[in-house]
Design a protein that fits this description.
The protein is mainly alpha-helical. It has one domain. The chain has five helices and no strands. α4 packs across α5. The longest helix is centred in the middle third of the chain and has 35 residues. It starts with a helix and ends with a helix. 11% of the residues are buried.
Length: 142
């Protein structure tokens, strides 16, 4: 696994969590939605209550999945932070932290660091080489 692939994992886990949270919000809306139909026709006394129960079970399962992925993201970010701490050049480290820990866009990183976009790309490439070297060292130790 390259340094870029390793660092990018956090972004994808974060996106997955956000998608699951959106789904959870929709399920919560469905579970709490109450519609009443007023009619002069007689209704059957046995209404389908299993629909609400099914939704609630899905909500509970989804909350468990979200919590598990959040724990994984926290652990991964902790590992990424430890890896980035090994990058000696502070500018390189800053580019990597802004990109892979804060998920900032390149233009925003350039503004924050008061550099051109081209310079940010150069620093990013050099920083990734440093991360690759650190990952290789880490793998050799294990």
């Amino acid at each position: 696994m390259t340094g870029k692939e390793y660092l990018s994992q956090a972004f994808y886990i974060d996106k997955e969590i956000n998608c699951k949270i959106e789904l959870l919000e929709k399920l919560n809306t469905m579970a709490t939605k109450a519609t009443t139909v007023i009619s002069d026709m007689p209704s059957t006394p046995s209404r389908d209550t299993s629909r609400t129960e099914t939704i609630i079970c899905k909500i509970i399962d989804l909350q468990g999945e979200i919590n598990k992925r959040i724990e994984e993201l926290i652990e991964l970010k902790r590992n990424i932070f430890d890896l980035l701490a090994l990058v000696e050049n502070s500018d390189y480290r800053m580019v990597l932290e802004l990109r892979y820990m804060n998920f900032e866009q390149w233009e925003s990183i350039a503004d924050t660091m008061n550099c051109s976009l081209r310079r940010i790309y150069q620093m990013h490439g050099n920083a990734l080489h440093e991360v690759d070297r650190q990952l290789e060292k880490k793998l050799k130790k294990n």
